[in-house]
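[audit] Reproducing an earlier prediction to check determinism. Same input, same settings, fresh worker. If the C-alpha cells differ from the archived copy the diff job will pick it up downstream; this log only records the rerun itself.
[audit] input (162 residues):
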Amino acid sequence: MRWIWIDRFTHFESKKSATAVKCLSHAEDHFGEHFPGYPVMPAPLILEGLAQTGGILVGEANDFREKVVLAKIPNAKFHREAMPGETLTYTAEMVDLRPEGAVIKGRVTSDGDPIAEAEIFFAHLDQNRSAQMFGDHNFVFSGELKYLLGIAKRVAVPETPA
C-alpha cells in the first residue's frame, strides 16, 4: 500500500519550487496510536510529505524520465508537533539539479507557524540498474502523485482571453 502525505499542490514552478498542502484529520490511522490521549503526526510522516513534494519537483524537472529516490536527509529540524485539525503547507525549493540527482530545501508550516525544515537529497537511479531491480514501471511517479501535479498545472495556467 502506498501512503500519500499531500492532498494537493497549490503552487508549482518547474525546476524552481513547489507548494503542497495536507489537511490533518483526526480520523487518520496514525493519530489513534501516536500518542493515545495526545495525538500528533509522527515526524517521519511530516518529512515524507515534504519529500513527496520535493520528489515530484525533481521528477518533473526531467519529465519523469528518471526514477527518483530519496537518498538522504542530512539536516532536519522540528519546531513543534503537528496536530489533528491543522493544515500543513509543504514548500520545496530546488537548490541544485544535476544528472545524478538533486537537492531541495524544504519547510513545513501551519498557518504560517514553522513546524519543520529539512534539506533533502534525491538520487536519479541508473536506468539500466533500476530496470533490473524494479522493472520498467516508474514506481514513484505513477498514480495519485502525478495526478495531483496535473491538477496543479491545469489550475496554474492562466486562461487566454477569447
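[audit] rerun output stored. Observation attached for the diff report: The helical segments are 29-33, 43-61, 127-134, 144-156.
[audit] end
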